[in-house]
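Section 5.1 Outputs to date
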Amino acid sequence: MKRNAVSAALIVVGAFVVFAVIGLTIRSGPSEAALESNRKPTTTSTTEPPPEGVVVVRINNGSFRPSNLQMDLTEVWIVEWVNEDDQTYVIQGRKGEFESPPLEKGDRFQFDFSTLDPGIYRYFAEVGAQRIPGSVDTRPDQ
């Protein structure tokens, strides 16, 4: 009986040692090279401004943000829609001026409004029975 107890104790101690060694070798956080060079780990950012001439409309929580956009075509002429939602969207100009391919989460679509006469361009995306509206006003200040 004592032999079984000693064997069981040795197994438990051995398992503890193995897990302790594994725990010491596996760690999270910055790499050794980053720590040695005193640099912060690199990260990516989605807050970078859009390129010159581009304004971003985000699709989030079933709506366009901003939903009514006023643009001065001397400064901004391209609208880029970015789908941040889990739904798939197809963005369409109400009079057929433009149509995006199906946009999955993370997809982008751009349209150059300088190719059209100044005016108010209404667009939408349908999700099921719901129609999400938006507009782009490219008229000079009225």
